[in-house]
Amino acid sequence: MQHYIELLKVHGLKSTFQRLQILEAIGMCGHKDIDEIYNDVIKTHPTISLATVYKNLIVMNNNGVLFEVSVLGKKSKYEIQKEDHLHLICTNCGTIHDAPLEISFDKIVSVENFELNKKEINLYGTCSNCCELKVS
Fold it and tell me: From CA 47, how far away is CA 9, in angstroms rounded?
């Protein structure tokens, strides 16, 4: 929990219990949509509203604490901000796995004289678990 308090502080946000619970819920799994986050949070705080969760997700996303992962045809998922990486998104089960990013954006944007605001690479396919199910 202390790590989340420091994370919020570094990004200029107060560490409210709502924000800490949201970060805790996301941290357990890595990538969660708003419904999954809300369902986790109400287990310990049944009076919190979906609107409060949503509002805090927006604030933390806008301040760089969270990153919104857009998923084609589904609700966005949220993850705690971390080093640059790409997402391997299974189109069958919807799981998201992080993978290291092997390319340097700095070099590309420098050559193109491009001001980079956001980095997001999503690769869609079938995860190893779903591939194994197809073979069985």
Answer: 25
pTM: 0.81
Buried b (16+ CB within 10 A) or exposed e, 78-94: bbbeeeeebbbbbeeeb
Identify whether residues 25 and 68 lie together within a single domain.
Answer: yes
Domain residues for the domain of 110 are 85-135
Per DSSP, which regions of 27-104 are E strands? 32-33, 66-69, 77-80, 85-90, 96-100
Question: Smallest Cα–Cα separation from 16: which of 55, 43, 50?
Answer: 55
Could you tell me the mean pLDDT of each successive run of 10 residues in the chain, 136 residues long?
Answer: 92 95 93 96 94 97 94 91 88 89 78 80 91 75
